[in-house]
Amino acid sequence: MSFLILIRHGQSTWNLEKRFTGWVDVDLTENGKLEAEKAGELIKKTNIKIDAYYSSLQLRAKNTLNIIQKILNEESKSFSRIWQLNERHYGALTGLNKIETINKIGKEKVHEFRRSWDIRPDPLEKESPYHPSNIDTYKDLPKEIIPNTESLKDTYERVTKFYEDVLKNDLKTKNILISAHGNSIRALCKFLFKLDNKQISKLEIPTGNPLVLEIDNQYNIQNCKYLDQERAKDLVVF
Length: 238
Known about the structure:
238 residues, alpha/beta, 6-stranded mixed beta sheet, 8 helices, globular
């Protein structure tokens, strides 16, 4: 039996501004840092020994993990930064205010873009400063894997490939903590919980709240819970 702890980064500056963020590399707010600190304290109370740490390439996930490791007195432990754990790319929606976009194109259309399984927003123009090819964080990524837009299905395919190639083997003997994003965690939960395309549209992942999964030797989830029950969201199947 192993533990997999999934945490969405603490509140980011663009979360606060209600903007579609995707691959734009913004940092945590002060409140986001406090969320990460609380997450670290909650994880510490479980007495689960973390054997391997992963984050996305993005600053908000990396800094959330840095704060958690500091609380756990594990700052000296290295962690792997994995591009497949990045947030979903929101294409031409990137940088737009969500409320203003709802007023412009309607609530149903925005909900479709945010929660549908395989609908991509229009691609983001490569000249945009928000395009990943113009952001220093991604300078070492091969150009052919940098997206212009993504659906949740696209995100699911890269996240689950990383699971099959790396995490599955790790979970045989290790307890793992992943600091990532709302949609990359939703994608992984779809796979692990065996959710259908309708169920995944209802799954919300709160910022800064560790989700602890207990996984058996056959990779089935035996138990799961949010550590901060006051901020827990519906897990759909549990």
